């Protein structure tokens, strides 16, 4: 009989050491814990040597809570090998571990228990799982029969979750990744559960993996591995099969060329030369020597006490996919930027209509939008606050969206704001309440946020000369709302200036008419009447009586207590950004994307200048009810800091926003380029042209799409993949750099666009696509060189975004999801040979899918 293989994951001694360090992670599973569980960061230790109790694998009967508080007894199973929770359901009943975004235990589930109006005694046995499936956030609520059962499930889920999340923060952990791959596909192929794979099992597995191999070749390989002629493979033989299947001829070719160029061996000198010439490494020889010796020889068998002077093919392959060779230079770095500059010098990760999940007109208002955004380091959330029966409520006004209480939202913000970033959270509020409930807003925020919310008396407040820094505002909340008193003062001042300017212009015109001997008395009379009419209209607007009714000016209805919470972020109306309008440093105005587009075209230099010392918020056009997003780098290029995104929509705008704020340790704030912070250097006058040269070499295990139930879509044939590379470039010059040679070679150019009712504002795009590889999604090889031209202003390459998308032939329409994608700021993309981890449309990283490329940037001038 074949040997039995349990759920144990075999790992290296080093990973076991990391496991001991992660003991505290396991302790976090206890139901009584009240702190939120954040997704682990890249440097989190990976738990190993996991043994899942048989009871959880065979299944535990627990109570499933559905919408409305309905309760049903359901058998839940935990499959550690395939990495998923399985239960019977008409809607699928599968939750892949890698799709889980958050686990909540015990008191952290209180919001839903209260929403369902269920008794408090259930709370300490309650698990809520937040996950993404079919492009939608979903929740699974489970109540265990006893606290012991909850403890078993909680501990096991946290361990498996930590493993999968650890593998989904870039590449590396090669042996762990290989072990998980082997267990997952062994288990998936063993449909009979007899712990062996016959030829039919192997053939089905190859189809699932998109392997391009004939039946004859597969039969030959199977027989070579089945040396005992038993007609099946045991696990150890399957490992041999997997190793053959995953062989990388393209890597062997690169390694052979490097060795041949260095006298037939790849030693330290050859490695240093490779790193400096190909990889454009800035590390010194000592640092490179340390990396070389880490991967020299066979890294899985070499003893650390035995120095090896040659790097083997296996060591070279392990290095190329390691964190030391990551494509995204800032992916795993801690917060490293200077955080002591005025906050106007930073881009701020921002959300729009944070309370909504789904549609702008009929979507659900919930605390979930705040939790997911804050756990991803969002630093600006939005509240639309209206009068409630007893306390203020949040919802999208004049729509059919549901409501959520301000108190619930503030409690969620308080709990989750500083889990992943210590830097300030801007609460952008549209206040539609009467004065009485404005006071209640203040009561709730002071009660929930305590000393963390910035406040100052309205009267006697010191004049603010400059905005504070993120470092000054650590762990603070800033309320941003319109101060109606300030709004009226600015409006009156602007109207007075306008009237004065208009009167002066008309007076000058009349004087010119009177002094001209060529003008008739009739012409002078006409001009005089026009001038008087314009002056009257201007003053009517100032008094608020444009209709001629003689109404008194509008008086602001605003709580002085609410005004006391508006300190560094005082909302005002935009009255233009020319030198005639004076805004205090704390004044912040919001622009719709259409208004921002007009401003960019009319006076982008004035907007850049304004943003040196002031915050500006941009928000998506409201008539796009499906919550699609503009491309935020169009506004970042003008220095706008608070560029708000609909976080419930996974589109290109969301992807670019996430790529930007993967930087700087996921602090949620990124220092603006020097060209937008230091006007005295005049860097914006520096315009350059370049070529982005990329060789698409190969892909590894192109993922299959999943259906709405979470199952892989296995078609009759394997995929026919191609790769599309796009550069998304701000429209910062009148004409793009697009030489005829590029368009003749197949480069496609798309100009920037403004928003319409259905489409979004976009920046320029230059794209290129490879040829199609037929019938191979497992290890397709292109070896295709592409060349994309781009222009840049002020060396702001961090505002150009590179998107790699692996697509299926025949399904390349804009609405179709790619099979896998990767997006990164151009400045952060390392040159040379790199493996790019592929993600799904929701930016969940595929565990085993990569794109292997060679990157180079050429400067034209």
Automatic annotation (TrEMBL):
<dbReference type="GO" id="GO:0005509">
    <property type="term" value="F:calcium ion binding"/>
</dbReference>
<dbReference type="InterPro" id="IPR011993">
    <property type="entry name" value="PH-like_dom_sf"/>
</dbReference>
<dbReference type="Pfam" id="PF00387">
    <property type="entry name" value="PI-PLC-Y"/>
</dbReference>
<dbReference type="InterPro" id="IPR002048">
    <property type="entry name" value="EF_hand_dom"/>
</dbReference>
<protein>
    <recommendedName>
        <fullName>Phosphoinositide phospholipase C</fullName>
        <ecNumber>3.1.4.11</ecNumber>
    </recommendedName>
</protein>
<dbReference type="GO" id="GO:0016042">
    <property type="term" value="P:lipid catabolic process"/>
</dbReference>
<keyword id="KW-0442">Lipid degradation</keyword>
<dbReference type="InterPro" id="IPR001192">
    <property type="entry name" value="PI-PLC_fam"/>
</dbReference>
<dbReference type="InterPro" id="IPR000909">
    <property type="entry name" value="PLipase_C_PInositol-sp_X_dom"/>
</dbReference>
<dbReference type="GO" id="GO:0048015">
    <property type="term" value="P:phosphatidylinositol-mediated signaling"/>
</dbReference>
<dbReference type="InterPro" id="IPR037755">
    <property type="entry name" value="Plc1_PH"/>
</dbReference>
<dbReference type="InterPro" id="IPR000008">
    <property type="entry name" value="C2_dom"/>
</dbReference>
<dbReference type="Pfam" id="PF00388">
    <property type="entry name" value="PI-PLC-X"/>
</dbReference>
<keyword id="KW-0378">Hydrolase</keyword>
<dbReference type="InterPro" id="IPR001711">
    <property type="entry name" value="PLipase_C_Pinositol-sp_Y"/>
</dbReference>
<feature type="domain" description="EF-hand">
    <location>
        <begin position="213"/>
        <end position="248"/>
    </location>
</feature>
<dbReference type="Pfam" id="PF00168">
    <property type="entry name" value="C2"/>
</dbReference>
<dbReference type="GO" id="GO:0004435">
    <property type="term" value="F:phosphatidylinositol-4,5-bisphosphate phospholipase C activity"/>
</dbReference>
<keyword id="KW-0807">Transducer</keyword>
<dbReference type="GO" id="GO:0051209">
    <property type="term" value="P:release of sequestered calcium ion into cytosol"/>
</dbReference>
<dbReference type="InterPro" id="IPR017946">
    <property type="entry name" value="PLC-like_Pdiesterase_TIM-brl"/>
</dbReference>
<dbReference type="InterPro" id="IPR011992">
    <property type="entry name" value="EF-hand-dom_pair"/>
</dbReference>
<keyword id="KW-0443">Lipid metabolism</keyword>
<dbReference type="InterPro" id="IPR035892">
    <property type="entry name" value="C2_domain_sf"/>
</dbReference>
<dbReference type="Pfam" id="PF13499">
    <property type="entry name" value="EF-hand_7"/>
</dbReference>
<feature type="domain" description="C2">
    <location>
        <begin position="672"/>
        <end position="840"/>
    </location>
</feature>
<feature type="domain" description="PI-PLC Y-box">
    <location>
        <begin position="562"/>
        <end position="677"/>
    </location>
</feature>
